[in-house]
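Priority: low. Protein: Plasmid stabilization system protein ParE. Input follows.
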Amino acid sequence: MERVTITGGAGFLELNTGGRVELPQSLRIALATGQLRRPLADTLRAVLALLVDGDYRVNGPERLTEAAALVPATEWPEHDHARVTYYRAAIRSGHLPVAIVLSGARALLLDGHHKITAYRAEGVPASVVRISAAQPEYSDS
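Result:
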């Protein structure tokens, strides 16, 4: 688990504008191949910048067993069959494409709609990076 503090965040996700944000190509490739570099906070900088200021935890990649409970950040896209087929083949060959989930009362799928579709079709728990608000640390002093 990594802790990260966001300052100067855009708050885009909180506004729920319905707009679509294009992630940098290097991040899209890393997520598609499952080749995420550490620290995750540096790798996911473009996503984290969309959050409101605050303290967060970044975990993963980890297996998501409750994929059915995901709430998409945008409508589930029309299936790009070629993209889903690509991810299904990658999963069958042992690669783990990574989706990004923002934890809260319900898990919000930020990126990876086609990946989740492919994982579901293959009957395999999805590989995700989970971003969640950090709980304040209390001391008994």
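Residues 2-133 form one domain. The chain has one domain: 2-133.
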